[in-house]
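Open question from group meeting: does this chain pack into something compact, or does most of it stay loose? Before anyone orders reagents, we agreed to write out a predicted structure and look at it together. Recording both the input and the output here so the notebook holds the full record.
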Amino acid sequence: MTVKLNLQRIMRPLLAALFLLPVVACDKEDGIGKGVLPPELLLGVHRIDTLTIETRTVPDDSIRADGLDAVLLGNHHDPKFGRLVSGFYTQLRLATNQPVFTSGVSSETVQIDSVVLALSYSNEQWGNNFPQEYEVYELDEQLFADTLYYSNRVLQVKENDLVQPESKIQRPGPGVNVVVGQDTLPPQLRIKLDPEIGTRIFNAVGTDDLSTQGFPAFFKGLYVTVADQFISPNNGGVHYFNLLSPVSKVTLYYRLYHRDGIDQGQYETREYDLVINTNAVYYTRSVHDFSTAMHELQAQLDGDFSSTGQKTFIRAAAGLKTRVFFPHLGSIRNDTLAINNAELIIPFQADHAFAPPNRLFAVGRNVEENTAFLLPDIFEGDSHFGGFLDVINSQYRVNITRWATQVAFGSRENSAIELVPDRAGSSANRVIINGPHHPDRPMRLVIHYTKY
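Structure tokens returned:
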């Protein structure tokens, strides 16, 4: 059975399971010795940094993507990593149970003016504010709160694009306030949709379809995406949106007419919101096209790993990860040796145009069974595990002392580990990291140990 991990949710679902694993004591027999102390504070400390390392770039085919801090939307052409097209699925929820759109007077009627999808920009984006061609489709498949949604899952949608012609092509404007009528609103993307949505909802007044429980089946939600059109390298952009912001919603703008009495022929303008709240299910789906990526990346994905000694690739948005092997880690086993510290040093190639991930995680991988597992070091806390971006030295440092010790002394199988980015499902960051045979700053495993 394949296990797919989303590291942004890594602790909660697997914490109990890890506690059931055999506990390796910090004593001489397991070779850990005084691993909790910094190596420079120990007497007689020795160092190894020449162990063989093998690396390769592999696709990150799927990660858990529902309920994250942001969704991605846009089309971007990275000159080194190829094209990325992102969109998202989302439910809409009623702001009130059994809404009534009139004042309850039988002589009143309603008429839809417009239906507008508003999306609140987050404080991040990938690429630039290149004009995008937006598409929105109604879901034909219901989302469920008790279901896990992974980034490669494709939902059924209805055929017609709901976006009105005047909203089809827009230049994103994060940081720019929006003027609607006489109101100035915070930065948001506004997309006009087919008003038939509002008519259908108005016609359902008084039925169970407009109950908070029945609405997710009546109107299953939206798929918001962009046209899959070719954009030249270094153009386009993927923008991040906060769906839980009060700004993010679908608003029905309508007129309430009075047919009788002194108000006959008069109308008042009203609106009703379909909201995206914590009860709503949503997730991003990203599609990568590496056919225009740099040669080394394409070659590795095609099975040619001759360049992995020089560089490998990591990309968020369920894109790429780097698989690392230590084939001779068990060769350091010695009854008179205690490992104090084992740290994987991961230099990367700085790129001022594209930000690297803020953190890398190391996750165990049984390649034959295609199953993932947590390294015991992650439960020692952030200060122990590390993996944080070091922009000054252009590197990451991941502490894998406990895992490396267990492998070296035979209490754990020598499986691969995989380097994956933080916010793998809610960002588009990427990085090129140096392989173990890079001529200047190679990846290396630095082991400090004590003889006794």
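Observations to bring back to the group:
The longest strand covers residues 108-127.
The mean pLDDT is 89.
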